[in-house]
Every structure is written in structure tokens, then in C-alpha cells.
Design brief:
11 strands; single chain; two-stranded antiparallel sheet; mainly beta
Length: about 250
Amino acid sequence: MMKKISVILLLLSLLSVSASAQIGEYRNRFSVGGNAGYILSNVAFVTKVPQGLHGGLTFGLSGRYICEKYFSTICAVSAEVNYAKIGWKERIADIQDKPVPLVNSDEAMQYQRTINYIQIPIFAHLAWGRETKGFCGFLNLGPQFGIYLNDSYKSNFDIHNMSEYNLSKRASAVIAQDTLAIQNKFDYGIAGGVGVEYSHPKIGHFLLEGRYYFGLGNIFYDTKRDYFSRSNFGNIVVKITYLFDLTK
């Protein structure tokens, strides 16, 4: 736990240095706007649970403060407040590419858990290219925090009544995750992304980004008495963002 907290503190320190160091050309450009995108997510369970990728939407508010240009690098701090639908989707009848024989495809068991979060990423934002009109590439890196809202599941079997027949059709005997309530309501980790931005002085900034989030916290308790020693999120995110300048 202390190592995880140290990583977060280190990233926050880098953000602080990025915002306060005025070695290059001074900037004072504050922009706000919105973003929307699509998330492919799963949960790294230990003991392992066979999974595909859970798909869900995300959208929210964005802000960015450009503080300086250091040689060719545009330095900024950016943050978002997003609503996100993440979770996991189990491959119940398929583990390690060895499908369990079924009488027909209609008998395939299906389970999907959707968890709704408020996610707050805070990034050191570095960009290279055209600053006010044209294209530039950028890199985002920093901590992300998540606040649990609620969750739901979809299943074509009774998760509270696992008969021997249903268990025999599962490639994995690990089933605790299907009925466990989310136990840790606060999520945290590290996010990073790369993208391209188009800027125009009259209409604003348009950003397209690919991002990955690695969770450092677990959604279930992880003591020796619990089912899982690890249950952290991994998210692949593709999103678009629009920003307009409040100060220049």
C-alpha cells in the first residue's frame, strides 16, 4: 500500500513542478470544455477469472492550463471529471482457448458486471507542434481517482443458485466474483495517453486521444481470508475532447 501511495505522490509532485516551473516562455492559457469516449475494461483477478473486454461509455468535463513553452515543448496541467461505465465480461465456457463442449450455442452461460464511477484524472500534459493554429501531438501522464456510484449485472443464469449442472458447464470454478458486492468504493491508479490536437484561434481545440489506465487499488478486499488477492482495473480508452479558451 505504501508503495502505491508513493507512486501517486510522485506523480502529483511532477504535476506541481510542471505547473510552477517557469524556465521557458510564460503562458497563461486556460481552457475548458467537454469530452466523450468509449472504454474497454477488465479486472485483473488473482485467482484468475477468464474474461473478454467489457465495453462502456464515458463522458464529462475537461479543463487545461498551459503555463509555459520550454524550447519546443508546450507544458500544461489538465484534469477531467467523468462519468464512466466500466467492469468485466466473463468468458465462462472458454479458458486458455480451450472451449467447453456445449450441446448448442444457446446453452452458453453469460455474465457481465457494469460498475459506474466518477473518474477524476489529473495529468501533466506535454505537447509538440503548432500551439495556436494547426496540429500538434501530445502526451498525458498522471494519477486517476475513481468514486463508486453503483453497479449492475447481466446474466442468463441464476447467479445465486449455482447447481452442479451449471458448475459443470463452467471452464473455471472461480465464481465468487459473480455475487460479491463491490467492497472498496474508492479506486486509484495511473493513467497515460497519447493523441493529436487541432487548434484554431476562433473555434477552439479538438483532441483525439488513446489512453490506458492501470488501477493500483482493488475492488474487493484482499486479505488472506478473502477470495482474491488482486482485483484491479485495466482500461483502454479512446476519446475526443473539445476545449475553448477562457484566457489567452
